[in-house]
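USER: If only I could read backbone structure tokens as easily as an amino acid sequence. It would mean a lot if you studied the pair and described how this chain folds. Here is the record:
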Amino acid sequence: MAGLSFDPVGGQQLQASGVEHARPVGQPITVADVTGSLFAAYTVEGGQVHLAGCQLTDHPFVRLTFAGETNEPQHHVHVAPDGSSVSDELVPRLGLDALEPIEKLPPRLDDAALRSLVAAGRRMAAKQFSPREPDAPLPEPTAVTVAWIRHAEGRLQFDIGASTASVGFSAWAKLLTPPPFFASGSGASAFHLAATDDGRIDAAEEIAACEHSGRRVLRQELLQCSVTGKHVLPDFTEACPVSGRPALRTEFVSCTVCKQHVSKAVMEAGACGACRSLAKATKDDPRLVWIFGEHPGLDHWKHWRLAETQSVYIAEATSLLKRLLVVVDKESLAVHRLAVANRLSSTWIAASDAERADLLK
């Protein structure tokens, strides 16, 4: 190659005039080349995507060409800007196997840097050609090509109303693919973006409308009403003390037995699930022991059935002719409801003040 000579001992003298400068065919050159494919990947409901900044820089990869043996094709060695070998898999991806010359004003590469890259390539070639002869002279390339590979780095910005969000990108321009937007709110990655009513930009599929108020929020912020099945904001719900599941406040009723405010989902024939599931309990049951300790009069009753909700104990005692119902707060042990009924009657009658004093003390 004219203007390029090598010292076979290992030192080298390289003239820049003998080096060809090239670029991969079809490599993105301008910012518009880079951003066109990026913008098309995103859907922004009620907004837009634009470039918040982009820097394109050229990096020198060196290709050394070596003559093949008789009847064999020539051989290439590719050196990355840091002096490392370029893998066979990366060569076609970067376009190093399909180069076109730069006719005018190629980027400038310092002579010392070029010599260093060429030396690295010759050492690589020596290991390939003479792996068992470490002292063999370094092979001489028949051509040296500096392939300028463009790198793109920047940031995309998404605007919806007054809200903004962004995602960065950094890759070789030829390998650049649209990066997914990572939503900090939902933790989802997406190319389809939307905004909540309070201005948070997130993945569109992670945003839903509260079926009670219509407010657009993150799907994870909604609760499913255990009665209607609607997905609603927690502000419109409360937890049913029987099931523990949330329900719209409009879907609560009073149990006719214990008088608790419970969701319609746990009601049947006027009684809540707890009142329908009273189970036999012995008087040494710790829950009854606590109740008797606070209200010793109840210890006179022998036969008990017991259930509990998140907030109360529901206990029913029976004697030969009467039944007693007591609903006790689990924390304070205060009696919320005390009622009596005939053994054969399903109707509970609230105890009078005098009866309460007599029954509890």
Summary: Residues 111-129 form the longest helix (19 residues). Helices lie at 31-39, 90-94, 111-129, 286-294, 353-360.
